[in-house]
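ok so for the tutorial part 2 we go from a plain amino acid sequence to predicted structure tokens. step 1 is just haveing the sequence, like this:
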Amino acid sequence: MALAFRPLHPLFAAEVSPIDLRGVANRETLEEIRAGMDRYAVLVFRDQQLEGGEQLAFAERFDGRLHAKTGAAVLGKSRLGNEALTDISNVDETGGLLSAGDRRRMYALGNRLWHTDASFEDPPGRYSMLHAKVVPPVAADTEFADMRAAYDALDEETKLRIAGLRAHHSIAYSRATLGFEFSREEQDRLPGAEHPLVRVNPRTGRRALYLASHASRIVGWPLPEGRLLLRELTEHAIRREFVYRHRWRVGDLVIWDNLATMHRGVAFDDTVHRRELRRVTTLDLPLPA
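step 2 — the prediction. this is what the tokens look like for a chain of 289 residues:
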């Protein structure tokens, strides 16, 4: 049965008709989901009963190799037992809430910055898949910005100005803006990576801005001018008409294209309310023929 996509925003994002992703293995359905990603960039699948291993297995079936060199990995072992299954939660190994001063919590606050997953690595992330296990009774939403629409809305002079530019992405830089400090040893394990400021979807040919709070500078530009340009482009890209806000329900699996979007978590009182989400990100490698 063909999937149905219900738009959630005038520009992008859609909810997909009921389907149990645990059993999706045939190439036809996987390609239908990928075509939906090309069109909408953010897809919402409701009522997914995925365990960690099932989420990892679906991601591999859908898009191949997984990102495991996360920034959080340098802080210590994941309580979930697999570095490719990122723990987007505010609880410790015993299930208790992290204290306000816990280093893991302070690091996780960076998820509230506009960012693109794994842009500080090479290859960076392509698709991210975030699954909601525990949702608090208050708004703890995630916002997504359509970077394709943001690029399309630029004037031609700006498009010419940024064509061919590259930015250096560093998670140490983005966390430092919040006052979080990595040790020298940790920084050595997170050298960052350079990527084009405008990326092209190889399947559709559509261009998108490639920005993130991790973007620390424009390669070859004086630092002040480069950071000013990055700030101006980011402010443009997060205008309300480009943003979809997702309110989580338990069982939601949201997949987004990191070549086409930025995202951030909306602040809530995480020292009072428990939230547990688990993310898997695939690597942006050439697609098989």
